Amino acid sequence: MKGVLSIYLQSAVLVRDVKKIGKMSVFVTFEHDTLTHTSPICHGEGKKPSWEDCQFDFTIYENDDTIQMIVCSKNLLHIKEIGRSLIWVESLLEAGGADWDWWEDVGYDGKIVGQVHLRS
Question: What are the extents of the domains in the chain?
Answer without folding.
Answer: 3-119
